[in-house]
Amino acid sequence: MTKSCCVPSAVTIVAAADAPCLASGLKARTPLPGDASVGADTDDAVRRGMVRVAGGEFTMGTDAADAVPGDGEGPARRVAIGDFAIAATTVTNREFGDFVRATRYVTDAERCGSSFVFYLQLPDEVRRAVRQVASGLPWWLPVECASWQRPEGPGTHVHTRPDHPVVHVSWNDCQAYCVWSGTRLPTEAEWEFAAGGGFEGRRFPWGDELERDGVPRCNVWRGTFPNAPAEGWQPGPAPAHSGEPNGYSLYNMCGNVWEWCADWFSPTYHVETPAEDPQFLEPTGRRSMRGGSFLCHDSYCNRYRIAARGSNTPESAASNCGFRLAA
């Protein structure tokens, strides 16, 4: 049975009055506005390392039996999109660090003073010391000072994983990065088109079966969720370039970390957006996310399929949330 979204919302975090994890002298910057019309043109983006994707028509969404009720994965329909460019990987810790050094930007999680971390990513002594506050999601723990720089809180640092996806970034943080870099977030339609790698009707970029020789072909939960990971597998993001790329040479379009998209989220997306370059622009309080994460498992959250959808509030952050650039 598929339950509700496996990413906690920031509304359950009590903000720290003095933001104790902020470096001395830093001031939080107002999140910068932006939408899918903002950013570099396709040719410039390709020169900067993105992948050019020729637009066209494709069947977006699904009417399959494993669609998640309430997520608005369908009805499936024909959609046309224009040419665009998209990054081969999610933004890495190294890249986000360059942005922070250039702008002195402070993320939502840093301003709040804490962020959510999956409990098995933490040492036993830290787990015992943290009070669980995410209603209905007992495996999420609000860890003081957890942020993009300290993915599991004090004592951890991205210096040891520069090529991993940056996490603990909110939609607001991603928008600020996009404005700085002259890029944007992909729309849901662009993301789904790109995830297919040039093929239609597949559940995953490589076909319909999750596993090959008993091993998942993407970084999703292995074992019994949420308390018994498979032997030899540790819950957490893998390097951004890990695994096999899809037909467009894009990595980790399924699993690893959730990827924020430009759209506002609505379960009626497929009946309210146009058939040409669709994007949901009406504010709903939640932004769309795609791709699932290392915590997805078909017993709980099978949102690692191409057509699957997720969402969260724009200020939310967690240890399985990242983003990918488009232009």
Walkthrough of the structure:
The chain has 7 helices and 14 strands. It is α+β, with helices and mostly antiparallel strands and 327 residues long. The chain has one domain (10-19, 43-323): paralog of FGE (formylglycine-generating enzyme). The longest helix is centred in the first third of the chain and has 11 residues, at 93-103.
Q: Notable features of this structure?
A:
alpha+beta; two-stranded antiparallel ribbon; disordered N terminus; paralog of FGE (formylglycine-generating enzyme); four-stranded mixed beta sheet; 327 residues
Q: Which percent range describes the beta-strand content?
A: 15-25%
How many structural domains are formed by the residues? 1
Poorly predicted sequence stretches spanning 5 or more consecutive residues: 1-5, 11-38
- Percentage of helical residues? 10-25%
Shape: globular
CATH superfamily caption: paralog of FGE (formylglycine-generating enzyme)
Distance between the termini: 37 Å
Helix count, DSSP H or I runs of 4 or more residues: 7
Would you report the number of β strands?
14
Gyration radius over CA: 18 Å
User: How confident is the prediction overall: mean pLDDT?
Assistant: 89
Q: What is the highest CATH level, the class?
A: Alpha Beta
Order of helices and strands: HEEEEHHEHEHHEEEEEHEEE
